[in-house]
Amino acid sequence: MVDTLITNGIVVTNAGTYRADVGIVGEQIAQIGGSFLRAQTVIDAKGLYVLPGGVDVHTHLDAPSLGMMTADDFQTGTVAAACGGTTSIIDFCQQSPGGTLAEGIDNWDKKALGKAAVDYGYHMLIPDFHDRIADELATLPGRGITSFKLFMSGKGSAMIDDQALLSAMAKARECGALIMVHAENGDAVDFLQRKFLSEGKTAPLYHAASRPARAEAEATSRAIALAEITGAALYVVHVSCGEALEEVVRGKQRGVNVLAETCTHYLFLTTDDLDRKGFEGAKFVFSPPARSRADQEVLWRALRNNVLETVSSDHSSTRYHDQKQVGRSDFTKIPNGLPGIEERFILLYQGVVSGKISLEQFVDLVASRPARTFGLAPRKGTIGIGNDADLVLFDPASSRTISNENLHHAVDYSAYEGMRVRGRVVSVLLRGKQIVRDGEFCGEAGYGKFLSRERVEV
Ligand SMILES: [Zn+2]
């Protein structure tokens, strides 16, 4: 006797694809294949893939961005995640400037409590690093937070120097945590921003021009060198281009413990999107910026060759009609970021449709590897007995056009508006409970639980 039986579906894991029924007892997967005598609830998955729920390890919900707050909070953001096929997120919990890390965590707990519709963990985002904060880092793994993010750009605000990065890396190594960096050379970006503004070049396109691939590659290479010197484990967030990826590959070849991700937008958008008519380019302002078609191909190949760990959304949503408008006469004032928490899963699946990655690789990248990398496995990210019953029933035969009207986030645009995509998330279960039915959210805000994460092996 099981509580829920998913029958007639095709189970896909990163290791293979096979026809099997899946039985759920309570919050866990209790049986895969074999015969089932009885079930309280039967879900017919005829013609559908049964996939592990997506794991998105890079989101910013209810977060400050250039003096404003993101449009999505934990409720709208996680409902959108669920409808898109994602059942676990790792959000960036932020220290307030001048504040302690503990205060940042308490603050994030308040934002998530009663609102999260999917399970969530935190990375610690540290915009104000100093000696006392360095000492506080060691307390974070005890609270289930085993990754710390620092900025190599953002001159005059969050940017840290090499000395601070070295000290954070040494501490992270001591306490079994991963260092994450936003890798762009902040001095180079600042220099170019000032130059363009002084020449009257204020349009969104200059956001990309002021953040060249070499500035990203230089910072990536430097972070990897510092990780090599300290013996720390490093995770480079949002790798956008071939030049930065080259540095990651070189680091791996030297034996440095360096991991990296790319994001949905680097696989589908280009610099040309920043040059759309009027001020429309502001919708595509995020850092590092969108690059070229050639870079997209390099990133897809890196996914195919298992060089990158995952594709995250870096969901950081601000509305176009009011929030993005603040930068109308100065591209440096446009709040950075774009929505994508709901689109990530289906867009990465397009790599399967076009033959760039296999179906099993898709499952690995969208769920299994990010779960393993960030200390959530085996509970999350794969379909196995005893694991959380986080499942997506996916129809590979249907297709649709992405339209903001059909998305569930609280922002007034999708960067992928009008894009035709194959496949559809039909149903989603989180810990055995159905939270999406026929593409619509049927769960409840507050059902999402905090994910305390394991220390990383360094
Ligand atoms: Zn981010």
Could you describe the 3D structure shown?
Helices cover 29% and strands 24% of the residues. It is α/β, with parallel strands linked by helices and 458 residues long. It has an 8-stranded parallel beta sheet with strand order 8-11-12-13-14-15-16-17. Strand 12, helix 3 (131-136) and strand 13 (147-151) form a beta-alpha-beta unit. The chain starts with a strand and ends in a 17-residue tail after the last strand. The mean pLDDT is 97. Zinc ion (ZN) binds next to loops.
Topology of this structure?
Layout: E1 2-7, E2 10-13, E3 16-19, E4 22-25, E5 28-32, E6 39-44, E7 49-52, E8 54-59, E9 64-65, E10 68-69, H1 74-84, E11 86-94, H2 101-112, E12 119-125, H3 131-136, E13 147-151, H4 162-175, E14 178-182, H5 186-198, H6 205-209, H7 213-230, E15 233-236, H8 242-254, E16 258-263, H9 264-268, H10 293-304, E17 310-312, H11 343-353, H12 359-373, E18 391-401, E19 420-430, E20 433-437, E21 440-441
Parallel strand pairs: 1-6, 2-7, 8-11, 11-12, 12-13, 13-14, 14-15, 15-16, 16-17
Antiparallel strand pairs: 1-4, 2-3, 4-5, 7-18, 9-10, 18-19, 19-20, 20-21
Bound molecules: zinc ion (ZN).
> What portion of residues belong to β-strands?
15-25%
Mean pLDDT: 97
Bound molecules: zinc ion
Q: Number of DSSP helices?
A: 12
Distance between the termini: 43 Å
Structure summary, number of beta strands: 21
What is the assigned CATH homologous superfamily of the largest domain?
Metal-dependent hydrolases
Number of structurally distinct domains: 2
Dominant shape = globular
By CATH, the architecture of the largest domain is named Alpha-Beta Barrel
Rg is 21 Å
CATH topology of the largest domain: TIM Barrel
Spans of at least 5 consecutive residues with low confidence: none
Structural class: alpha/beta
Strand order of the largest sheet: 8-11-12-13-14-15-16-17
CATH class of the largest domain: Alpha Beta
Percent of residues in helices comes to 25-40%
Major sheet, described briefly?
A: 8 strands, parallel
